[in-house]
Amino acid sequence: MAPAAAVQAGLVATPRATHRIMRGNAMRRLRHASTQFFCALVLAGCAGQSGSPARSPDVASLASSEYVLGPGDTLTVFVYRQPELSASELPIRPDGRLSLPLIADIEAAGRTPSQLGKALEERLRTYVRDPNVTVMVRSFQGPPSRQIRVIGEAAQPMAMPYREGMTVLDVMIGARGLTRYAAGNRAEIIRRGAAASDQRAIPVRLSDLLRDGDISQDVAMQPGDTLIIPQGWF
Description:
five-stranded mixed beta sheet; elongated; three-stranded antiparallel beta sheet
């Protein structure tokens, strides 16, 4: 067969055709390599995930963050389908107890709302079949061990319930700031340890914080802290 006829018949590759074939082969090899690389990445990611599974939240730490009831808290106790046994605006007495219809006394302080609800259900089983009790906190005071106290030359000395992440600035906002006679830069936080005799004083310059905006003095508070603001000498 003549060369021209062979080219027309496709039996002989021209330079342009050869170039197209080579380029097509290179593209196929590149796609194959890319596919292998992607699969390797996916397998490596799956192996990493299976090797170090995500940790579930620590149940104990979650439970410890629940609000603990204390004397002075006001509750609403709702007994499902038993309105005569429910109560609203029910205070916890100074002795830490409360009373409900059919329940003369029950310890409420030191328990979380859900724990108190379960205890009430146990006491009501004598009178009600399968009681369902919900306890809602209407006003907060908390147990003494989780209160923050402000004494001395605060505009409103007080005890307030501790909140997660509370700082000195939060406390001073609640106490309405300093009096005109306060020596704010000589204030101290008294922090108690596990033992009654274990305590330390943390100096805090309240005047610099409140009047000059010195955020470095915005110390983190802990449950049971007492902020003492002395009087200045004139």
